[in-house]
Amino acid sequence: MAKVSLQNVSKFYTGSKKSKVTAVSNLTLEINHGEFMVLVGPSGCGKTTTLRMIAGLEEIDGGSIHMDDTKVNDLEPKDRDVAMVFQNYALYPHMSVLENISLGLKLRKFPKPEIAQRVEEASVMLGIQDLLNRMPDQLSGGQRQRVAVGRALVRRPKVFLFDEPLSNLDARMRIQMRMELTELHRKLGSTMIYVTHDQAEAMTMGDRIMVMNNGSLQQVAPPLTIYRKPVNQFVASFIGSPPMNLLKLHSVKITDQAHLPGTDSVGILRLPGEVVIGENVHHVIGFRPEQGHLLEEDELLTHDSSKTLLIKGSIQWLEPTGADIFVHVLAGPHKIIIRETSEMQWKVGQQVIIKVPEEELLFF
C-alpha cells in the first residue's frame, strides 16, 4: 500500500479555436495508506482525468504527484506500481480467464510457480476458480469484472485504481459487486482510488469521498459528513437521492415573527430565529427530505412552531417506494420532496404544512 499525494495538480486540453480547456484545476489531495477513496462528480468534472494522471496515462500540466516519498511526475505507468481496472473490462477475447489474469506477470518474467500461486489466490478470493479455462465471451458481466479485478490483484500493486468499473452491470449485480469490492479492500488493506458518477456507490463504498465539479475539488470528507454537512449548494444537491431541498429567499432583513415580502408566492409562513443575522441575510435554506414532516393545516395549532421553518403548499405527486413514500409538494416556486412512511394517507391536491426543526436546517 502507499500514500498518494497530489499538490496543486492541473491538466489542460486544447479546445476549439485553440482555446485552453481546464480539465483539472489546482487539485490538492492526500489519500492515506490503505484508504478507500472515492472520486465522485458529474460527467466531465475531471475525476477520470485525475485517476489517469495518478496512473501516468495523462501528463500533468502543473503541480506534482507523490507516492509515499517518491515524486512520480516523470515515471512511466509501468514504473508507478499501480494497477487499473477499467469500465470496459479490457479482456483479451482470444485468451482464457487464466491467460488474461496471468498475462501481466508473464510479461514481467515472473517464475511459473509464483504465477500459478498468485492466480490461485486471486481466483479463490474472487470466487472465479471454476472459470479459469473459460473464454471471456462465455462469462457474464459480473464474472468479466471479477476477472479484470483478478488481473489487477495478482500484480499486488501499491495502489489500485478503479475507473467506473460497475457502470456496465445491471442494478442487482452492481450492488453485489459493491459488496465484493468493499470486502476485498477489507481483506487486502490496500490503497484504492475509485471513480464513479453514482453517488450511491460513493456513499456505500468509500472511507472518504472527494466531490468534484468543473475540474475543481468541492469537498473531501467521510460519507456521512458529506451528506449531513455539505460545504456548498452543489455538494448538497449532488449527494443524496432524492437531493437536498434548497429554498431561495429574498435578500431582506428577516425577524422571527415577520413574513417575507411575497410570502404568499414563496409559501413560507415562519422562519426560525437563527435566520436573523442583521445585514448578512442567508439566501438559501437547505434540508433533506427525511428532515421535514407534513402536517394538515388544522394540526398546526397543536404544534409548537417557535423554532421551526413552516412552509405552506399542496401535494403535487406521490411516489411510493415500499415502506416509505416520497411526497412532492409545490410551495410557490419551490418543489419540495418530503420522505414519509407509507402508513400516512396523503392525497394529490391536499393542502399541507411542511415543518422543519431549526436544528435540521442548513444555510448557504
General description of the model:
The chain is built from nine helices and 19 strands. The protein is an alpha+beta fold and 364 residues long. The chain folds into two domains: 4-238, 3-Layer(aba) Sandwich (Rossmann fold); 245-363, OB fold (Dihydrolipoamide Acetyltransferase, E2P). A six-stranded mixed β-sheet has the order 6-7-8-3-9-10, with helices on both faces. Strands 12, 14, 15, 16, 17 and 18 form a six-stranded antiparallel β-sheet that branches. The longest helix has 18 residues, at 171-188. The protein starts with a strand and ends with a strand. The model is unreliable at 251-266 and 274-279 (pLDDT under 50).
Low-confidence stretches: 251-266, 274-279
Report the average pLDDT across residues. Answer: 88
Number of domains: 2
Intertermini distance: 39 Å
Helix-strand pattern: EEEHEEEHHHEHEHEEHHEHEEEEEEEE
Q: Tell me the strand percentage band.
A: 25-35%
User: Could you say which structural class the secondary elements and strand pairing correspond to?
Assistant: alpha+beta
Helix content: 10-25%
**Individual helix count:** 9
CATH superfamily assignment of the largest domain?
A: P-loop containing nucleotide triphosphate hydrolases
CATH class of the largest domain, anyone?
Alpha Beta
> Tell me, what's the shape?
globular
Give the helices and strands, then pairings.
Elements: E1 4-14, E2 20-31, E3 36-40, H1 47-55, E4 62-67, E5 70-71, E6 82-85, H2 97-107, H3 112-126, H4 141-153, E7 159-163, H5 171-188, E8 191-196, H6 199-205, E9 208-213, E10 216-221, H7 223-228, H8 233-238, E11 245-248, H9 263-266, E12 268-270, E13 284-287, E14 293-296, E15 308-320, E16 324-331, E17 334-341, E18 351-357, E19 362-363
Parallel strand pairs: 3-8, 3-9, 6-7, 7-8
Antiparallel strand pairs: 1-2, 1-4, 4-5, 9-10, 11-13, 12-15, 13-19, 14-18, 15-16, 15-18, 16-17
Helix pairs in contact: 2-3, 2-4, 3-4
